[in-house]
């Protein structure tokens, strides 16, 4: 009850718990702990401990809940009913009413105990305990397991809440911003200067077509469109900060180990790959005159202020500064020039291969004309 709570990772906590129970004389062979979570893609996580092996952590996607294997699982039954389930598999007349039990019996498991874990919010999670001891668990060993359930539930809940907070912040503000918020950067005006490459993109023809599309088709289109960008941005070391209708703002912060050249080249490669993916998208009937889905992205590099901005107790973790303003002007210019990718001269300095000068252009709010760069003419005519 007292020794395992400080393990830094949840899998280590489960391992420490099981090893201490073994040391107390409870002959465990296989233990599984399942905790549901609040995550846009993950139903929950299962931690599986086997005697003599490392703990295996599995993230269960939402669609697994629709499978017969999940619905007929013994642990699912425990979580659904909130009732303890015990099967003495060594007994010849033991009911084998869940598929897993048959598998465990072939592995010489003699006893199976499924126990609910009750969280303070009323949700039910679960843990299963098995042994190969001849005759199964003794009454004293069952009592020992039951004695630690409340403590296990409390520690699991604290860890789950912390993970849910991190998951939600990752999903809604991005990983880097989420880490800063969890680490206490939550006061209005808490900002820091960051040198980064900036990505601003939007979908061509979206505003004009949005009024004509059914809402469900519109949402599906936007989700597929962002799926063509977000994974590439994240894989390239970027941070997605904001979705603004069909617009997307992302930054690629410079790290100590990465110079500007490396960061900008990764951002540029992500833009090329996004253009390719979006060109293969299918558009709803009537969208943008039937010419498919196209986008424009502006790439710039500079110093930004990154942090909390807002009013009252409603804050937004975002970035501001002249560099962001210039990127916004470039994105509008990309639409005017009917180009998919344009970049500032500052960005092009770090990424000379593949970017060609397009000329000098006046941008609103900037006194001097800006030399703008673009890619090969394969994207010319992009609406």
Write a short abstract of this structure.
By secondary structure, the protein is an alpha+beta fold.
Tell me the span between the first and last alpha carbons.
64 Å
Principal-axis shape:
elongated
Structural class: alpha+beta
Low-confidence stretches: 379-383
Structure description:
The protein is an alpha+beta fold. The chain has 2 domains: 10-170, 2-Layer Sandwich (Beta-Lactamase); 187-379, 2-Layer Sandwich (Alpha-Beta Plaits). Helices cover 37% and strands 28% of the residues. It has 13 helices and 14 strands. It has helices spanning 10-23, 68-71, 74-81, 99-106, 139-147, 149-173, 175-182, 206-210, 215-227, 230-235, 260-279, 322-337, 345-350, and strands at residues 30-36, 42-50, 56-61, 85-87, 111-118, 124-131, 191-203, 239-244, 247-253, 295-311, 314-320, 341-344, 356-361, 370-374. Strands 7, 8, 9, 10, 11, 12, 13 and 14 form an 8-stranded mixed sheet that branches. A 6-stranded antiparallel sheet has the order 3-2-1-6-5-4, sandwiched between helices. β13 and β14 (370-374) form a beta hairpin. α6 crosses α7. The radius of gyration is 27 Å and the shape is elongated. The termini are far apart.
